[in-house]
Specification:
It contains 18 helices and 24 strands. It is of the alpha/beta class and about 575 residues long. The protein has an 8-stranded parallel beta sheet with strand order 8-15-16-17-18-19-20-21.
Length: about 575
Amino acid sequence: MKRRDIFKGGLALFGAGFTGGGGLISSAMAAEAGKPALAGQEGRGAGADLAIVNANIITLEMAQPRVQAALVRGGRIALLGDNAAIQAARGNAPVYDAGGKTIVPGFVDGHVHLELTAVFLAYMVDAHTPPLKSLKEINALMKKKVSETQPGRWVVGRGDFNFAERVSEKRFPTRLEMDALSDKHPVILFSGLHVAMLNTMAMKELKLWDEKDAANLKWRNGVKRIGTTVHRDDKGVPSGVVTEIADLFYDAHAFTVDEYKSAILKFTDPNFVAKGVTSVAAIPKGTYDIRAIQELNVEDKLPMRMRYYIHTPLTIDIDAQLDSGLSRGFGNDMLRFGGMKIFVDGTGGDGLGKRYDDLKWDQAGLNETVWKAHSVGLQCILHCVTRTGFDMAVAAFAAAQAKSRKDLRHRIEHVGYLTDPADIKKLIDLGVRVTITRTGPGGEGGRGAAKTAMRTMAEMGLDPLAVSDSTGTVPIFSPLGGIASMMVSPQDGGTLVPEQVLSFDQAIRTYTLWPARALHEEHVKGSIAVGKFGDFAVLSGDPSTIKGKGLFDIKVVSTILGGKVIYGNT
């Protein structure tokens, strides 16, 4: 089946799936604390009734900053007030007694590769350093995976960014070392997702072995690829280290749609829902990812709300996307289409540590693609880790807005380097949002630099999003860890310089109201108000009153989605 046929099939399935939720699951079915509240994901798309009482509810709404109780009807907030008012109006709604605990809006992760995270946890080799310390240890785990895998199927390892700097050998494995793992399996080991090491079989399968074939590889739009590097010796033989070939790997369909679905169902609750996340902006890496989430939506088994963005030109050409007629916001309350994801640059270097602006576009081409999306109302989120890439993205957005001013809330991702107030003002004037990869200490650090001007952005009104960008590369993350990391001083485990530390009110908005606005969904999520989804995170402590290191001790007790307790206890 051709790639475009797969996409059309998934689109047809997506359109067929908006028939509402399945059977209701009462909050009385919640399991003991610390366990997922549902045995399966069935029925989460259908809203429920729930009366929450005896709570410290932080609404993030000026009119009612804090309330004691809330009533959810059919998955939406129907009433806010004190215990007496909610008890009088609840009728037959089940009661959730919070016992004085703090409740905040369900967290919104504004940039995540949920499907890839789940597939990593389910099927790939965990090659992170630490805890691993050497290539010898990594190779042993890869070899074990080979022994457990049917010949012909892919064996995939995932490691940290630049893990060559942390292993005792101080280098990446060679192709010959990868070949020694297997000559009957295509084998690939990623460092992050922009750099990878492959055995000969994998290189040939992805058409990277022959120099002429590799040079002629094209993007989905037919344009010759920019930024893909196959490192070779002086005789032209591949060393095994390559950059920017992740999309070629996704095209190889190492895992089936059913395997994607199984992984999502198994690993979303413990890694997202259990952390209070009720909604994500998902960026699938390939068509099987997209089909998986659409099928789960049709089956009413999506674990949480998702808004998804399609890579162009990696997954689909922009013209093919426009031909599909799929518009921003199409979908239902569990799954909606958001727009387009575009790589302006990659990782800012090659597989051997040489730093340069690894741009994927010239300015004219980027302007044209952004304009095509902008002109029909599609939101664009642009990956930019270099200053040159950032300047190109700003220029493309400025050109589009000059032709036709629209409130599309275009975004630039991973701008940890953004510190100049003049740049911040320029983005505000263009209506552009930004994301910062931000989590917490103890292995949870994001790519946002310590000098990232988070407070300056917040005070100027840029409303930055703090995101996990989870793919499996950074295995530990949580919104609460991220909030704490931005509120405390460096000596207490914070990740911002003192002058950029955020207040609680600012920090919590980076995971709630601001990402909701960036997703065009502030009318239904991001704060607690009548008419919005009954999505909440119940916390063990009040982060607005706890100071210093104690913020890192706060845990999520329960997660509530549309009035259903889907994690924790009642």
